[in-house]
Design goal:
Region (Disordered): 207-231
Oligomer: single chain
InterPro entries: GntR_C (IPR011711), TF_FadR/GntR_C (IPR008920), Tscrpt_reg_HTH_GntR (IPR000524), WH-like_DNA-bd_sf (IPR036388), WH_DNA-bd_sf (IPR036390)
Protein name: GntR family transcriptional regulator
Helix content: 55-70%
Strand order of the largest sheet: 1-2
Number of strands: 4
Keywords: DNA-binding, Transcription, Transcription regulation
Biased composition (Polar residues): 220-231
Strand content: 5-15%
Distance between the termini: 12 Å
């Protein structure tokens, strides 16, 4: 059975974001195929996709390697997000469906409940789902795809400190949904811009130690296929 390249791509991207593969390290098709239990064909296709996304570069005499973004490139990503997320919210106010609103309101209820109880374990993933759904509600596949790639890259380059006021953060999420539900695109844009700017302040560039990288490798579990790979 041929494993879809997008599944392999997701697995490799997740490991890059998690720091399993150090920046600048080589990504050989043979080793990747063995790690994920697939043939080289989907690995080759996945590497092409990841190169287009900016996670991988091809170097002369070395082949595919994990990209090494500069601090300026990392800063540019945060600036792009502060511009595009408010645009997505404004579009969502015009194009959202009732299904989008139902999911967004459910996430806000869960987030506010977890924040009040001081249970921060789920808040980061809930926040990710919230912003992913908000982007989808924009009705723009191109914008949604761009924001998704931005979130992946930002998660790769930055560590995010827990918000000092998680209740306030989820109150802002609620205000965004209220504006989207009313169809108030300017209000949705403004509230999202303020929320994104505050969230940006919690981002710190990653400078993990070798020991931390080794721990991420040990904890990484991304099997794609349990069958023997075919070459």
């Amino acid at each position: 059975m041929r494993i879809p390249a997008h599944s392999v791509c997701t697995a490799i991207r997740d490991d890059i974001v998690a720091g399993v593969y150090e920046r600048g390290s080589r990504l050989t098709e043979e080793l990747l195929a063995r790690r994920y239990g697939v043939s080289r064909v989907p690995v080759r296709e996945a590497l092409r996709t990841l190169e287009a996304e900016g996670f991988v570069v091809t170097r002369r005499h070395a082949g595919a390697c994990v990209a090494e973004p500069t601090e300026q490139e990392a800063a540019d990503l945060l600036e792009m997000r502060t511009l595009l997320e408010p645009l997505g919210a404004a579009r969502a106010a015009q194009r959202r469906t009732e299904a989008h609103l139902k999911v967004l309101r459910g996430l806000v209820r869960l987030g506010q409940e977890r924040a009040r109880r001081g249970n921060s374990d789920d808040l980061r993933s809930l926040g990710g789902w919230f912003h992913e759904t908000l982007a989808q509600a924009s009705g723009s596949p191109a914008l949604t795809s761009t924001l998704t790639q931005l979130r992946h890259k930002i998660a790769w380059m930055y560590a995010v400190e827990a918000p000092a006021g998680p209740v306030e953060s989820w109150t802002e999420h609620g205000a965004i949904v209220d504006a989207v539900a009313r169809g108030d695109s300017e209000r949705a844009r403004a509230v999202t811009a303020l929320h994104t700017e505050r969230a940006t302040a919690a981002h710190r560039l990653r400078f993990g130690s070798a020991g931390e990288r080794a721990e991420r490798v040990r904890n990484s579990q991304h099997p794609v296929n349990t069958a023997s790979p075919r070459h």
